[in-house]
Each structure stands twice: as C-alpha cells, then as structure tokens.
Amino acid sequence: MKKLLAALVLIGVWSTTALAINWSVHGLPVQLALFGRFGTAALACWLLLRITGRTLPMHAGARRAYLVGGLGTSLSMACTYWASHSVSSGTVAVLFGLIPFSTALFTHLWLHEKPALRELVGVALGVAGLGVIFAHGFGGAALGLLVVLVAVMLQSATAVRLKIDSQGLSALAVNTGALLVCAALTGLAWLLAGMPLPAVAPMRALGAVAYLAIIGSALGFSVYYWMIRECRPAQVALLSLASPAAALWLGHALNAETVTAQIVAGTALILAGLVVHQMAPRKMVPD
After folding, report:
1. What number is the average pLDDT over the span 51-68?
2. 113, 124, 183, 198: most buried by Cβ count inside 10 Å?
3. CB 277 within 8 A of CB 127
4. Residue 209 and residue 212: Cα distance in Å, rounded?
5. d(CA 219, CA 267)
6. Which of 126-140, 141-155, 235-249 has the highest mean pLDDT?
7. Rounded distance, CA 66 to CA 131, Å?
8. Are 89 and 18 in contact (CB under 8 A)?
C-alpha cells in the first residue's frame, strides 16, 4: 500500500513539474529559478529533520550519496530549465517518459540486472502509448531536445547509482543532503552569472518556484529516493511513462483542454504497459 501511494504521489508531482518549470523560467533568470527552488527546498528539508529530532549522517557513504544525488539532480535540472525556453512543457514530459530505456541501460551496466520479457513488453507498450499521444506534438529547437535527452540520461544514472550508494540512509536524509549540494551548486552558478534579477517578478513564476521547491523537491524527491531504496530502479523509472498522459488529463479536467481519441488510445497503452510491467516476476537485487 505504501508503494502504491508513493507511486501515485510521484505521478502527480511529475505530471505538473514540466509546466511549473516552464512558468518559472519565463518569469525569472534560469540561475535564479534553480537556486530559488533548491535553496528553499533544502531549507524545508533541513527544518523537517530538526523538527523530527533527526540528524544528517555525515559518514563517507552518506556524503557520497549526497554528492551523487545533488550533482546528478542539479545538472539534470539545469539542462531541463535551459531547454524549457525553447521546448514546450509537454515535449519535456514526453522525453522524460523515455527514462525506462536509459535506466535499463545503467541498471545493466552497474547492477548487472537483466529485465524479464514481460518487463520489456510493458516498457514497449508504454513507449508506444507515448508515441500515439504525441505523434504530431513534438516541437522545439533540436538543440533543446538534445539537452533534455542529456537530462534524462543524467536522471537515470543518478537513480541507479543511488540504489547502490544510499543503502542504510533514510529518504529524508538523502534528500536533504542532495538538496544542500544542489543549493550550493545552483547558488554558485547564479553568483558566477552576475546574480541576475528580473525587473519585475511575475507572481506566476514565484508561485511555480515555491511549488517546485516544496512539492517538486522537498516532497517529490523524498518519495523518489524512498522508492529507489525500496524498489528496483526499472520499476520506479516506469512511473515516468504515466506522467505525460496524466498531465494531459489534468489539463482536460482543470483547463478544459480537448481530449481526442488519439489521447484515449495512447493513455490505454500506457496503462496496459504499467499493468504488464508490474505483473513481471520480481527478482531481488543484491545490495
């Protein structure tokens, strides 16, 4: 039940993240949007640690996990934020739906884990669903699309490495340490860029930064790191397939956007892929 709830939370967060990123970078400099997000999120997680009476482990293994999570996340998000100037939020969400492929690659390289046939069929159905939904919806500059693909690879590599490096650490501790690294790196980037500030900060952009900090990072990454620790990386990665479809249905419900037969068919394929993948035999991965 905990895993199901965590999966639903991640799908909800990931379904809205791309749009929030797009709103934030169209009202604030990229460096400031990133620093505002990660600085606020790091402070929130640190305060939560203090309130709950827990400490942040600082042994060598913990520091390695924080560095892996922080460096991978900050680089991946920097790529995503930069590309969001030229690539639509829907296209960003679609490209992040390709994470199962890159995760499978790193899982094979670092965990020596071979996917079962049903898992491959599940991923194939999910990606086919994305293809059906967005058959005519890919826009944006080629360079921006390439940079998003780099972000996808970085996110996958980070998830698999954390499966190895975060054993024995709480998800909140991993998230707090990683966010502190993210805040330091993005703060340095803002400083080196001359600390640019907008002439006027739109409320929508500020709200998007606050949402990304508290929901997208403090909550979302804590759940994400817990899922990485408790589940196989490929299972966590598959959730990214549902996010673009969920984003479309949220748009229909909250913004009166049209849902076509093409969208219905694609969503059905994605859900079928999720079901098939979760029915696959589960193998324990040695720590």
Report:
1. 94
2. 183
3. no
4. 5
5. 26
6. 141-155
7. 35
8. yes
